[in-house]
Specification:
17% strand; rod-shaped
């Protein structure tokens, strides 16, 4: 049941109070208090924000009663469209003077207040007896007790006659956009809003499930942090749009009051963890990594203080953190972008979208922006788009990591696999073909140093690249040619290579090394020395096998080069 109380015993008749004050003003030569124009209720007004047509008064102490406000109408001035108040602004009183058009007599009209958060909302209107009654609403009372309509926002039946008074109070920022709705239009407005918000919630949930799947598949913590960040953001949106009161805490308003501090802190906590994991700040930005750790601890402290029934201090800390955290995240994003992390640009776009939505929210809360359907959906729309762009940034990050991982196994000059790739392939052969032998060739170019000394390293690099392409053409697809030094190479032949294949590969290597290499107008003639060792005969580790292959290669060099030698027995 709505909490309604009669106020006729304590309130003076408003007409006589106004008349008396007007006479006093005339006798004393004082200007008459400004009054908002009387509003004509007609169908074209349905769905219009009427804060420009109402009068407003501020109670900085939030202690004045309705009877005191009613006794001092000079405090009311035209609201001029103001729909909110800043931090510590006290209670806000609104008065709506209206009359109905002839076509709207007895028509079902609703007075609707659609704030993002409002702790205490009170409505004063005339009942059937012409007496004023008080309806207590807001987040401080249970859902059913504070609403005349089963809806996430505050909707009250508009009486036949005015005036109507509203009192809005919030320890943070009081938001009080007032709209008048005809019954038929309000039903459509409700259904459309639920449809749009439901689509946004659904989109966030789908992205959560996708990223959860990626987290479990790739075992990458950044996806896990993204899931937690999106869930925390979704919970915050559910709270801001009144669904937390409607779905979760219908009979527990105390959780709504706690949630206004806990939910944004939880989002900030998970966002900081996501940033640390996404940008790998521990490795690339160690100083800012420590700052992020302090910020995460601060959010945990805020949550703990609020759960412990403290309110003012956690609210103050949460507000104080907002600007420094936003600046730090922008700094980290730009720094990592300059460090070469290409996916940081996607993150920057997503974060700017979030900041734009938050800015619109703050402008609405402070009353500097008249709300409409666009501003109401600004936060959920920008949040959903930001979450989508974050997912794109994650995809770009995974691609960058894969490229970096691939580059770690590739020789930068020749494009051949490097020593790490050779070790990886050797491990694969020894684990999967434990009972089968395979061969390792150590290849060193003859007469390569004079090319570098006489014609420079740039020309020497061109000669190396030409020879590596030839060597790759000498082996099968399952074999590996790796560059392990300046002009030193290793050829790992798979276990399927027979003795005849091994010999044929060596002969082709020697042949392509002898063929002249043309660079511009010059022709360079080189050769190669090749050493052959067998696993497991000449070693069970790559280091041991390579040592024996190198010994055989040195024997070939001592024989004049352009030939090959095989290790005859283990030494």
């Amino acid at each position: 049941m709505l909490r309604i109380s009669r106020l006729s015993d304590c309130a003076p008749d408003e007409y006589y109070v106004r008349l008396l004050l007007l006479l006093l003003a005339l006798l004393l030569g004082l200007p008459a208090p400004a009054q908002a124009d009387e509003l004509l209720i007609e169908r074209g007004l349905s769905g219009v924000v009427i804060n420009k047509q109402i009068a407003a008064a501020s109670d900085a102490t939030a202690q004045l009663s309705w009877s005191q406000i009613l006794a001092e109408p000079q405090h009311f001035i035209p609201a001029s469209g103001r729909c909110g108040a800043g931090l510590g602004s006290g209670a806000q009183w609104l008065r709506l003077d209206f009359r109905r058009a002839e076509t709207e007599y007895s028509a079902p009209w609703w007075l609707v207040v659609e704030p993002f958060s409002l702790y205490d909302l009170r409505l004063y209107r005339r009942n059937a007896l012409g007496e004023f009654e008080e309806i207590t609403s807001g987040e401080r009372v249970p859902f059913k007790a504070g609403r005349e309509r089963e809806w996430r926002q505050y909707a009250f039946v508009l009486p036949e006659h005015g005036p109507v008074y509203l009192r809005a109070y919030d320890p943070g920022c009081a938001s009080f956009p007032v709209t008048l709705w005809h019954e038929d239009d309000l039903e459509f407005h409700e259904h459309l809003g639920e449809l749009l918000l439901g689509g946004i919630y659904g989109g966030l949930l789908v992205m959560c499930l996708y990223n959860l799947f990626m987290a479990l598949s790739l075992r990458d913590s950044v996806y896990g942090w993204h899931v937690m960040t999106t869930l925390a953001l979704g919970a915050l949106l559910v709270y801001l749009h009144g669904h937390a009161a409607q779905w979760w805490w219908r009979e527990e308003p105390q959780w709504l009051v706690i949630g206004r501090i806990v939910l944004p802190s939880l989002w900030g906590l998970t966002l900081a963890g996501f940033i640390m994991s996404f940008f790998r700040t521990r490795t690339y930005l160690p100083n800012t990594h420590r700052l992020l750790q302090i910020i995460m601890l601060s959010y945990l402290l805020i949550i703990a203080m609020r759960v412990a029934s403290l309110h003012e201090l956690p609210s103050l800390v949460l507000t104080a953190l907002a600007l420094p955290v936003a600046a730090l995240v922008l700094y980290i994003t730009i720094r990592r972008w300059y460090q070469g992390m290409t996916s940081a640009r996607y993150f920057l776009v997503a974060y700017i979208l979030l900041l734009a939505g938050i800015t619109l929210l703050l402008l609405s809360l402070c009353g500097w922006l008249i709300p409409n359907r666009l501003t109401e959906l600004a936060i959920p729309m920008t949040a959903t788009l930001a979450s989508l762009v974050f997912s794109l940034a994650l995809t770009g990050r995974i691609k960058s990591l894969r490229n970096a991982s691939k580059a770690a196994f590739i020789d930068e000059l020749t494009g051949l696999p490097n020593r790490r790739a050779l070790e990886q392939r050797f491990k694969l052969y020894t684990e999967s073909e434990a009972d089968h032998g395979f061969s390792l060739l150590s290849v060193d170019l003859d007469k390569f140093k004079p090319v570098n000394d006489q014609w420079g390293h740039a020309e020497g690099d061109q000669v190396l690249c030409a020879l590596t392409r030839r060597m790759q053409a000498c082996v099968r697809q399952e074999d590996l040619v790796a560059r392990v030094g300046g002009d030193e190479f290793a050829v790992l032949l798979s276990p399927s290579a027979s003795t005849g294949i091994v010999t044929a590969v060596i002969k082709r290597l020697l042949e392509v090394a002898r063929a002249p290499v043309h660079v511009g107008t010059r022709s360079h003639r080189l050769s190669a020395s090749v050493g052959l060792a067998h696993y497991p005969t000449h070693g069970r580790s790559l280091a041991e096998l390579s040592r024996h292959a190198d010994l055989a290669m040195y024997e070939a060099k001592r024989a004049g080069g352009n030939t090959w030698r095989e290790v005859m027995e283990a030494t």
